[in-house]
Amino acid sequence: MKSKTKKMLQRISSFICVLAMVVANIATLITPAVKAYATSDSSNTVWIVGDSTVSSFNDAYYYPRYGWGTQIGEYLDGTYDVKNLALSGRSSVSFTKEDNYTTLVNEMKSGDYLLVGFGHNDEKAGDGLFSSGSGDYKTPGTFGYSLYENYIKPANEKGVTVILCTPIVRRTTEDSFSDSQLHKTENGDYAQAIRDLSANLKNDLGLDVPIVGRQSRASVMWALKGLSSSGRPSWVMVLLTSLTTGSRLSAGERPA
After folding, report:
1. Model pTM?
2. Which string of b and e fits 98-107 if b means at least 16 CB within 10 Å?
3. Who is most buried in 37, 165, 233, 251, counting CB within 10 A?
């Protein structure tokens, strides 16, 4: 019994260490994007909106849960006021019905920065969550339209710099990822929709909306190298992030 307890504690300890390292890597990817557009104005605020992969939690889970949005402030120099408004279970559509969205729209101001991390719940039908991953930002009902009309457009009108984040992959028990785990559904590719949105806004309107972050996927995936075949729990795979352009694994591809 003592041996089993010891092994369980070792597994929990390993999980905590890997989780902490990978969340730190995700935050590290986002921070340079913020700094690249930031000024030294002490009144600047970094606003963060998104779903459970971004938000904080107050529930009585067996281990404290938190999304990457809770860690951004740890990688800035204290100059910026970080306000993480992300809420678990929300999509880019349903979030607009929340008081947190009203706070964002009313309080963000020129010189601020807005990080947007949706996608996981936009692909879900019902409950006012869904937006289609197909179609461009000019078409009502699409993911691109929701991101542009609800976040980018109002932010741009106030002089706020927007940074888009593609969704983290879903948990898998296999050595590879299915299309659905990569957010490729019959209604479109949600990560690609974000990349297309950024490109189209640049081409059509001259808006520079960066995507976090254009770096090698190795900076995030290193923590996962070899773990999928080492017998460790499959929860490790959920830590694989697709926050960057070019960093997302294709279906069937494994970390190098």
Report:
1. 0.72
2. eebbeebeee
3. 165
Is 204 a residue whose pLDDT tops 90?
Answer: yes
Q: Is the pLDDT of residue 225 over 80?
A: no
Distances (CA, A) of 59 to 7, 56, 83, 88: 26, 10, 20, 11
Query: CA–CA separation, 229 vs 175, rounded Å?
Result: 7
40 vs 18: CA distance, rounded Å: 33
d(CA 228, CA 240): 11
* Residue whose tokens read 């107050």: 58
* Pairwise CA distance, residues 227 & 237, whole Å: 8
- In degrees, rounded to 5, the angle at the alpha carbon of residue 84 between the alpha carbons of residues 210 and 103 is 95
Calculate ∠ Cα 251-255-256, nearest 5°: 125
* Residue 38: band (very low, low, confident or very high) from pLDDT cuts 50, 70, 90: low
Provide the 3-class DSSP secondary structure of residue 188.
strand
E-assigned strand segments in the chain: 45-50, 81-84, 113-117, 161-165, 184-185, 188-189, 211-212
Token look-up 């998104």 returns: 50
DSSP tag of 103? H
C-alpha radius of gyration, the chain, whole number:
18
Q: Contact 179/169 with Cβ under 8 angstroms?
A: no
